[in-house]
């Protein structure tokens, strides 16, 4: 953007690289010298920076910037703000219609006598082909290759269209089939944390055409799922209209005790947030417990945002995020020390870069939990993540099921639950398998078979049913 027409051009600051040179320039939020900024959650800072950087008096105005700065008041008033994400991510089911629309616009340009090559995404767009695979072949060493061949055979025309698009359009990257799941590719390869475009440095943000785009929030990149029209508009450089969200702070403290897995933690957090009520809001995680969570655990919690109803579950950038970038070979795409060179002066990273320590009064609504709280072997009922069961409660339900006729099922679950209290999750799984084997042998001896609703009939019951 031309800083001459931006009313916040005075905040356009050079970003020194420590060697006497510069990474580029950025719009410094501290340079605005507005005390309201100090009270904004990190997720809202990303929205604010985008509004300031793209403020042109037309699509995004100073009034829009003021709405975000006054977030403490306006977040409860359902005010709308424009937002321009740094990039867009698509999967093949929703990406093909977008590609066809861009091709149609090129045809229209050609009919008008203009250059069709002018039609390209204005922001980086990544399309990951991952929604067309089906597991036709299983339990075979050649299953992967066989399924891949079937995938290419069934989707030949669609893949040909996508391959054409990969070379026809600029600013669009298409990840071929069998490269991985879109969210995994986004987290491990596409996410940048810091963008540097034409000498302008700014935080990464993304919208995607899949509800679980939220997984990227575990890396400190604000992102969520949108519809195909919104994604296409963003690719054309149009700002998205969104309601300025409220933010619920979730404080994490303590450490995970032995035997507690990331799954146990995620299901506990999901249950707590569903109970608290976070629909349409951002959830921002903070506290010293963040230092105890690996990036994979954060990504798993962030990925569950649709399940607990939030627009995004955001983990601010810290040393764990930066180490993950380095581990996955992306430190060359960002300043060598984003924490000190960019995130720290922008206010996105606390001094020292260790953990996010926002005070509770930064959030109008606060929840939280101890990392040592989730019990080992949290069980999920078929009705959804809101009906998580701890080992103890599952044990009690299994005993009740046994009294009401589900003896074999109750014995299998009870054996697994008892094992979880003494040993690891793997031991619990083995115990459940052993109990299930004993139940099968008991049915074989009694001549029984499977009955309705997952129960098992006795030999007499099976004979009566056969009659």
Automatic annotation (TrEMBL):
One of its GO terms (molecular function) is iron-sulfur cluster binding. Its EC number is 4.2.1.3. Its cofactor is [4Fe-4S] cluster. The keyword Ribonucleoprotein does not apply. Residues 426-437 have a biased composition (Low complexity). It holds the Pfam family Aconitase. Signal peptide: none annotated. This is aconitate hydratase. It comes from Panicum miliaceum (Proso millet). The lineage of its organism: Eukaryota, Viridiplantae, Streptophyta, Embryophyta, Tracheophyta.
């Amino acid at each position: 953007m031309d800083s001459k027409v931006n009313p916040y051009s005075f905040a356009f600051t050079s970003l020194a690289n420590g060697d006497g040179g510069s990474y580029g320039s950025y719009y410094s939020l501290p340079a605005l010298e507005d005390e309201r900024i100090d009270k904004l959650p990190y997720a809202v800072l990303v929205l604010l920076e985008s509004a300031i950087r793209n403020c042109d008096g037309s699509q995004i105005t100073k009034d829009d910037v003021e709405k975000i700065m006054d977030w403490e008041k306006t977040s409860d008033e359902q005010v709308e703000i424009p937002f321009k994400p740094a990039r867009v991510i698509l999967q093949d089911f929703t990406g093909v219609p977008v590609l066809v629309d861009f091709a149609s616009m090129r045809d229209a340009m050609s009919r008008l006598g203009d250059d069709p090559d002018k039609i390209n995404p204005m922001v980086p767009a990544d399309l990951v082909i991952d929604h067309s695979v089906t597991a036709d072949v299983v339990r075979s060493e050649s299953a992967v290759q066989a399924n891949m061949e079937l995938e290419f055979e069934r989707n030949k025309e669609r893949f040909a269209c996508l391959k054409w698009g990969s070379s026809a359009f600029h600013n669009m990257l298409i990840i071929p089939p069998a490269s991985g799941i879109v969210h995994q590719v986004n987290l491990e390869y596409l996410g940048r944390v810091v963008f540097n475009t034409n000498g302008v440095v700014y935080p990464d943000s993304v919208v995607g055409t899949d509800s679980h785009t939220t997984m990227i929030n575990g890396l400190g990149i604000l992102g969520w799922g949108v519809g195909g029209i919104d994604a296409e508009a963003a690719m054309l450089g149009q700002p998205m209209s969104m309601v300025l969200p409220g933010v619920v702070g979730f404080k994490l403290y303590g450490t995970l005790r032995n035997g507690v897995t990331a799954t146990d933690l995620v299901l506990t957090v999901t249950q707590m947030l569903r109970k608290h009520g976070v629909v349409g809001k951002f959830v921002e995680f903070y506290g010293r417990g963040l230092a105890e969570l690996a990036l994979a655990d954060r990504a798993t919690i962030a990925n569950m945002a649709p399940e607990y109803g939030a627009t995004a579950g955001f983990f601010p950038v810290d040393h764990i995020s930066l180490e993950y970038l380095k581990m996955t070979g992306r430190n060359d795409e960002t300043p060598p020390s984003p924490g000190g060179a960019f995130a720290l002066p922008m206010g996105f990273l606390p001094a020292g870069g260790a953990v996010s320590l926002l005070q509770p009064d930064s959030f109008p609504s606060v929840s939280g939990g101890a990392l040592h709280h989730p019990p080992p072997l949290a069980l999920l009922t078929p009705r959804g993540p809101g009906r998580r069961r701890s080992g103890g409660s599952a044990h009690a339900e299994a005993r009740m099921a046994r009294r009401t006729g589900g003896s074999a099922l109750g014995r299998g679950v009870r054996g697994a639950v008892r094992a979880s209290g003494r040993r690891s999750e793997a031991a619990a799984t083995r115990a459940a398998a052993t109990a299930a084997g004993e139940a099968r042998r008991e049915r074989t001896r009694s001549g029984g078979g499977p009955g309705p609703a997952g129960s098992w009939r006795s030999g007499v019951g099976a004979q009566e049913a056969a009659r």
